[in-house]
Write a structure and sequence with these properties.
Order of helices and strands: HHEEEHEHEE
Number of helices: 4
CATH architecture: 3-Layer(aba) Sandwich
Largest sheet: 6 strands, mixed
Number of domains: 1
CATH class: Alpha Beta
Number of strands: 6
Radius of gyration: 14 Å
Structural class: alpha+beta
CATH superfamily: Gcn5-related N-acetyltransferase (GNAT)
Shape: globular
Strand content: 25-35%
Strand order of the largest sheet: 1-2-3-4-6-5
Oligomer: single chain
């Protein structure tokens, strides 16, 4: 929970609002997501420095997608490739039934969007997303 809050402060600054869901999750909600999502963490010297989660969901067209969420890296370690490693890992562990990857990021998060586009994701303005966010998808292959 502490790592998520540290990571999403910059998201709040770039979006101009504190209405970033990750900043408002309770400890009980974080515990629930650990129970219902596949969650992976990275530690360095015992310190939690990164995490990402994923789960299979219906894609609305009769298929299933791998929803990638809460990818975060400790602010003092960002820009060193750890986020890319976490993204590659969560894609690699997706169950075979998932035919694509989906994720949400801030509509004003140019840096995040650039990183995801570089990893092969494409903006999908045709798909619904929570206020202040955009959906990016990538076919599995």
């Amino acid at each position: 929970m502490t790592l998520m809050r540290a990571c999403w402060v910059s998201e709040a600054v770039s979006s101009g609002t504190l209405a970033v869901p990750a900043l408002h999750e309770t400890l009980a909600e974080v515990a629930e997501t650990i129970a219902t999502w596949d969650t992976y963490v990275v530690r360095s010297g015992g310190r939690l420095v990164g995490s990402v989660r994923g789960r299979v969901e219906p894609d609305g067209a009769g298929g299933r997608h791998w929803n990638i969420g809460r990818l975060c890296v400790a602010p003092d370690l960002q820009g060193r490739g750890l986020g890319r490693v976490l993204l590659e890992h969560i894609e690699r562990v997706a169950p075979a039934e998932a035919t694509s990857y989906w994720l949400f990021t801030g509509a004003n998060s140019a840096r995040n969007q650039r990183i995801y586009r570089k990893a092969g994701f494409r903006l999908r303005p045709d798909l619904a997303s929570p206020p202040g966010t955009v959906v990016l998808t990538k076919p599995r292959g």
